[in-house]
Amino acid sequence: MEDFFRPNETSEQLCARCTNLTYFDCTEEEMLWCFMGPRRLPLLRIVPITVFLLMIFLTGVVGNVAVCLVIIRHPAMHTDTNYYLFSLAVSDLLLLLFGEYFLLYYSVL
């Protein structure tokens, strides 16, 4: 972050320098940092995000597997509505298994 600042320059001055259309004095990396922020989040933000996403993942997997097992094991639950709920649970489980991993991966980077 400090690599982009000139001596005694604040982040507001950097963004003003990168958004001035009459005198544009900014590199591409400086402009990207100004508009998009730093490339990596600080550790104090990564840890709560990771814990929150892991809690969502674990409760989602346990809940959806439980729904699937209850519908499969009890013959009284073999109704059209429960088959629909079963397909929703499988769909949610697949989304958790494949989507949550990439969300966690890209949020930590």
From TrEMBL:
Membrane-spanning residues: 46-72, 84-106
Domain G-protein coupled receptors family 1 profile: from-to ranges: 63-109
Alphabetical keyword list: G-protein coupled receptor, Membrane, Receptor, Transducer, Transmembrane, Transmembrane helix
Membrane topology per record: Multi-pass membrane protein
GO CC, alphabetical: plasma membrane
Cellular location(s): Membrane
Pfam families per record: 7tm_1
InterPro entries: GPCR_Rhodpsn, GPCR_Rhodpsn_7TM
Keyword Transmembrane helix set for record: yes
UniProt main location, coarse: membrane
GO molecular function, one term: neuropeptide receptor activity
Family the UniProt entry places it in: Belongs to the G-protein coupled receptor 1 family.
Protein name: G-protein coupled receptors family 1 profile domain-containing protein
